[in-house]
Amino acid sequence: MSESESAIQAAGLELREEPVAADREAVRRMVADSGFFSEAEVEIAVELVDERLAKGPSSGYEFAFVESGGVVSGYACYGEIPCTVGSYDLYWVAVDRSQQRRGIGKLLVQLVEDRLREAGGRKVFIETSSKPQYDPTRHFYDRCGYVERARFPDFYAPGDGKIVYEKSL
Amino acid sequence: MSESESAIQAAGLELREEPVAADREAVRRMVADSGFFSEAEVEIAVELVDERLAKGPSSGYEFAFVESGGVVSGYACYGEIPCTVGSYDLYWVAVDRSQQRRGIGKLLVQLVEDRLREAGGRKVFIETSSKPQYDPTRHFYDRCGYVERARFPDFYAPGDGKIVYEKSL
Fold it and tell me: Checking CA distances to A41, which of A25, A34, A58, B58 falls within 20 to 30 Å?
């Protein structure tokens, strides 16, 4: 068992890495309730679950769900970037509102990094918005050891830039 | 008719913006023959045609083909970046080997830019490799007015970084 799996167990949580149909609604709820994401972004988060349910591993999307008594507390979605050798995108990390400040986000990021190391991953990328409301998100990635690698002003919309974080494994 | 459409006509070429099934092979040939792309990349170029053929405009992939006497001389593939307002990726520009040095690539880029301006596009992004073999590609983007915005060393593979170019419309 990897260190991150032990830590999830020690926190009284269960890990599940294969999505089921009910995860569509769990993902929708967690991503929407976070208040950070637009409706279009919520739909995309759900679509990635759909892709995985329809196509399995060939979808390119990997998932990790942590649960407490069968209820999803948080999840991560990641995948190898097409046409790269060992570069991965961490697409989503979301934690149920009632379960925040318990360190679940960090446990999920560590689990993903362990899985990527096992798979020969070299780099993890995370994209996020430059808007002030995302300050907590960016501090979270800082604390997880991610480094800002690029900024694209006005990328998402005028006044809403993209920041790309990277971590070498 | 936009300026770029007139220029395509003046060059004795025809423009077509809806892919047909035969474009799968034309795209495969042009992208493979360029010598710049891996097999996996060639497959992705063809997959984008498939997505468009299967889903139409909702695929998110737009195309422009220039033809001479019914034979495809070059093509471009582009699309709005999900969750952005007016930011587009120019995914592919490829010109048949026998038709190069006629300015077809530049005509295609100008046509794409005209289309994006018409659609309210603000920014165009292009990603390419940092490897020396891509020097001509990067010089081409320079000449088209694209500016290097970010570099990610070792992104595609060790020693093969990604460069992101941007142009504001």
Answer: A58
